[in-house]
Amino acid sequence: MLFRRSPHALEKLSKELRQLMLDTTYIAGSAHIGGALSVLDIIVALYNSPDLNFEKDHFILSAGHLCLAHYAVLSKIHHISEKQLQTFTQLGSIFQGHESTDVPGVEFSSGSLGQGLSFAAGLALGDKDSHVVCVTSDGEHNEGQIWEALMFANKYHLGNIINVVDYNGIQIDGKTEDIMPLGELAAKYLRFGWTVTTVDGHDFTSLLKTIKQAKNSTIYPACIIAKTTFGKGISYMENNSEYHHIKNLSDKLYQLGLEELS
Amino acid sequence: MSHISHNQASIRQSFGDTIYELGSIMPDLYVVSMDLRESMRLTRFANKFRSRFIECGVSENNAAGVAAGLAKAGKTVFLASFACFSPGVNWGTIRESICYNNANVKIVGGYAGLMAGVLGATHQMLEDISLVRALPNMEVFSPVDATETAKIVKAIARTKSPAYLRIVAPETPLVFPPHLSFTIGKSNVLKKGRDITIIGHGPILTSAFTINKPSLEIINCSSIKPLDEKTILASIKKTGRCIVIEDHQKNGGLGEAVASAILSSEVKCKFAHLAVDNHFGQSGKDYHQLYSHYHIGQKNLENAIKKIL
Question: In terms of C-beta density within 10 A (0-12 exposed, 13-18 middle, 19 or more buried), how is residue B212 classed?
């Protein structure tokens, strides 16, 4: 809603934001870059959706370590300079290493996984005139609290909540199917009383369409399982859990990343 | 107020009655429950204010998150369970979703301390004060009796910050004068004296009221955080002796907070701390029996007084 761009223009914007995130990671010296590159297109699509208005609706990033993607989007909306964004993780910066309400547009500080969906559910119950969009990660579904929140949203018929799962198949120590298999996640959501749609998490046309459908699900809470690529856009990071969190990206890898994104 | 009343009343009933009363005058007051509505005396509220009584079932982490989300939507939220579950189970969610996000949630921990009696070690929460005291943005309260409970509930319902209220299950003696007011961050001297300053929180403090000699100055430290260092230190400066008594672990309890305040000041005194010393509890007939067993009973206080003189 804030960008109101065509899917084609969003792809261009997404590429620009990836460069910004890579620059920020390089300058700041560390970031959870792999997941942030994975979730970026989801966040870009949500903020561009004509069906949502985050002046009134709510955006909750439950997987707080993905904050760099959210910060990059918010920096465009709130006209925050690249230089300021690049204070990321420095002492005194509003851009904390995990999602923080110090940043304009952030409504919930997060970092410990599994908490955001409960918060989103409480907010959806307390503010029924708005929609609450929560972004979780697939690895985050290891947390029991997620499943508590799913039952709660079903019990209270929270048709105004949308949970978008950034499903990239990677968590800190490796593949989610090795660490803790999620099984048939869509079927589990259905059994918990949610509507669920699986979508390509890097296809803006599909994402925007799915967001519209999810918003129109006014009786049931809605889940969007967005299939994404961990480290999207930078070949050496893609599907490589070593890039969950990186420190001191070398000049060589930084340049290689920039070339791939340009 | 110089002697103990023979009247007893229930702190948790006072909590439930006060919440019910506030429900009528505060349209944004919500209660989030974790399948312990009757144990927390919330049935009347639940029946009258159905849409504002949110039942989460036995899911303390989700409940804490839901409470924080409701607070974000502008509600004043009381999150009520047993202390062993909240903050006992959901401390990480309280830390992040409530305290770090500075959510207007009042966590009410029931059945606290050895007063949980027959329920045994799992339910006798002796570490709650320690857990919540450590959290930035959090205020911590532990009422001495049913009268003060009503006053504290009303006071914290008007603030916007996270708070923890520790309450107990059995009926306990009434010592808080009805005309006296409760102020956040203030401790009341409930009995003036010369020889020893007795400081405590919760109904265990009432054991000091039955002792007539020596002359005890009894401070009801129901506002554990913020701590009224001024009142505490002024009394200790006068008496030169301090005994802190609490139905809680020594580690992280009020005694450590008072000791830190004393050591950081110019005041010199003799000091004793009566609390559970690195043990879990167990089932017992009643709290009197358990207090004796864990050396925080009436006799133990009398002995500590003799020793410190």
Answer: exposed
Q: Which domain, by its residues, includes B110?
A: 8-173
CB contact under 8 A, A126 and B100: no
Residue B86 near residue B64, CB atoms below 8 Å: yes
Based on the structure, what is the number of domains in chain A?
1
Tens of pLDDT, residue by residue over A59-83, are 999 999 999 999 999 999 999 999 9
For A212-230, letters b (16+ CB in 10 Å) and e give ebbbebeebbbbbbbbbbb
Q: Is the pLDDT of residue B4 over 90?
A: no
Question: Do both B152 and B13 map to the same domain?
Answer: yes
Distance CA B79, CA B99 (A): 13
Distance of residue B92 Cα from the nearest chain A Cα, in angstroms? 8
CB A127 within 8 A of CB B41: no
Query: How far away is chain B from the Cα of A100, in angstroms, using its nearest Cα?
Result: 9
Chains A and B form CB pairs within 8 A to the count of: 95
Query: Average pLDDT of B38-67?
Result: 98
Instruction: Let me know if residue B31 belongs to a domain.
Output: yes
- Answer for the pair B168, B203: CB distance below 8 angstroms, yes or no: yes
Please indicate, yes or no, whether residues B48 and B158 belong to a single structural domain of this protein: yes
User: Cis peptide before B226, with omega less than 30 degrees from 0?
Assistant: yes
Q: Does B62 touch chain A (CB under 8 A)?
A: yes
Q: Residue B11's closest CA among B156, B112, B117?
A: B112
Question: A7-28 and A67-77 helices cross at what angle (nearest 10)?
Answer: 120
Closest residue in B to A132 (Cα–Cα): B69
The structure tokens listed for B143 are 């009422």
Cβ of residue B105 closer than 8 Å to a chain A Cβ = no
Give yes or no: residues B21 and B166 share one domain: yes
Residue A154: left (phi > 0), alpha (psi -120 to 50), or beta?
Answer: alpha
The reply to whether B86 and B29 lie within a common domain is: yes
Residues B203 and B227 in one domain: yes
CATH label of the domain that carries residue B54: 3.40.50.970
DSSP assignment letter at B273: E
Helix (H, G, I), strand (E, B) or coil at B271: strand
The answer, yes or no, to whether ipTM is higher than 0.90 is yes
pLDDT in the model for residue B2: 43
How far is Cα B176 from Cα B2, in angstroms, rounded to an integer?
11
Chain A residue numbers touching B75 (CB-CB < 8 A)? 126
With 60 as the cut, is the pLDDT of residue B3 above it? Answer: no
Pairwise CB contact (< 8 Å): B68 & A119: yes
Does B205 share its domain with B140?
no
**Which chain B residues have a beta carbon less than 8 Å from that of A125?**
54, 66, 69-70, 73
CB contact under 8 A, A126 and B30: yes
B69 touches chain A (CB under 8 A): yes
Residue A5 pLDDT: 78
Q: Tell me, yes or no, whether B168 and B192 share the same domain.
A: no
d(CA B111, CA A215): 43
Query: Across the interface, do A121 and B62 touch by the CB < 8 Å criterion?
Result: yes
Q: Which of B30, B69, B93 sits opposite A120 (nearest CB)?
A: B69
Q: Residues B136, B272: one domain? A: no
Contact across the interface for B66 and A152, Cβ inside 8 Å: yes
